[in-house]
Amino acid sequence: MLGHAPIFSSLTDRQLKSLAKTTKVVAFPANARVVKQGEPGVGLYVVLSGAAEVRQGERTLARLGPGQFFGEMTLVDEQPRSADVVAVMPSECAVLSRWEFWGFAKGEPEVLQGVLKEMARRLRETNRALSE
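Structure (tokenized):
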């Protein structure tokens, strides 16, 4: 499933298998808060099953399903989470910690290109939405 996430789509099968060994699968019941706005981030989450919503207060910013991800900024900086993420149904996520990611990236620098491309894409989307 990691290969379906745009952030990792450029990796080979060998690289994906190696990366998968560093992730942890975590189950969340419906309505569970996966991450809380303002708290320190640990890493990246890839939705394996179920669905989650990204929220700021009462406002829903995005709905994420299998193959989609959140928390990519935490891989680069150590700033607090910018939004809540809530499982809206029973869900499973693969969690990749910052330190595991950087350990992997040292041997597989191609992964950095995927992260940077996806962060740039999301920044462009945000800019476009703000200008409308």
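Residues 2-119 form a domain with the Jelly Rolls fold (CATH 2.60.120.10). The longest strand covers residues 43-49.
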